Amino acid sequence: MGIIDSGVGAAHLPHLLAGQAFLLEGEHLVAQSLAADQLGHGELVTRILLEEAPQAELLVAQVFGRRGVTTAAQVAAALHWLLGQGAMLINCSLGLRADRPALRSAYQQAREQGVLLCAASPAMGDAVYPASYPGALAITGDARCRPGEWSWLHGHVAQFGAAVGVGAAGGASMACARFTGMLAAYWSTQPELNGQQVVDYFQQQASRIGPQRREPV
To answer: What CATH architecture applies to the domain 2-209?
Structure first.
């Protein structure tokens, strides 16, 4: 399973198959060895993923340093690297505001190869990428979902929702990690299925169907 984030914590290194950092030095994109997670976001994403899929083996592409800021060029390079490593499921608990050609092209290559990309999509605000690309699995938090549950939102804001969580473990980014972990756990038990068949299963078995609505007082 591939992860695009800020790195991986020391406790999760036994699950790491390979890692690569994609950093900007001036205007140049540089690939380097995986560095320590200075932001902590990737460590939390990885922990949540592994809670759902404890046997998962990880390919980690690092696109954040000390700050939660990255670029389409870095995310695109991360995607290309993960595809080269053979990842068929990728968690991208981040969203970029602009649709850039490099990122769109990298995502299109992933889609053509049958790779499932789970990307965070906030419940409110403008569209983000790669979640807004056709065929991407846009994931958001759904307050109706308990741990281990997910919702199928019919593409309203996102494709799927998962438990929101609290504090640092809350929000769309961590809901995305939860959903990706559940998907990875199921796929590992049904390796003969292709990506679309796995998505079909999650649509059919969703605990909730349709968008969240305000309940009458």
So the answer is: 3-Layer(aba) Sandwich (3.40)
Specify burial of residue 117 (Cβ count, 10 A radius: 0-12, 13-18, 19+): buried
- Domain boundaries, given as residue ranges, for the chain: 2-209
| Strand, coil or helix: 92 | strand
Instruction: Give the Å distances, CA to CA, from 124 to 68, 96, 100, 170.
Output: 19, 14, 21, 15
Per-residue confidence in pLDDT tens, the chain, 217 aa: 999 999 999 999 999 999 999 998 888 899 999 999 999 999 999 999 999 999 999 999 999 988 889 999 999 999 999 999 999 999 999 999 999 999 999 999 999 999 999 999 998 888 999 999 999 999 999 999 999 999 999 877 799 999 998 887 789 999 999 999 999 999 999 999 999 999 999 999 999 999 876 544 3
Prediction pTM value: 0.94
Burial of 109 from C-beta contacts in 10 A (0-12 / 13-18 / 19+): middle
User: Are β-strands 160-162 and 89-92 bridged in parallel, bridged antiparallel, or unpaired?
Assistant: unpaired
Residues 6 or more apart in contact with residue 208 via CB below 8 angstroms: 142, 144, 145, 149, 150, 151, 152, 161
> Radius of gyration (Cα) for the chain, nearest Å?
16
- The three-point CA angle 147-198-201 to 5° equals 65
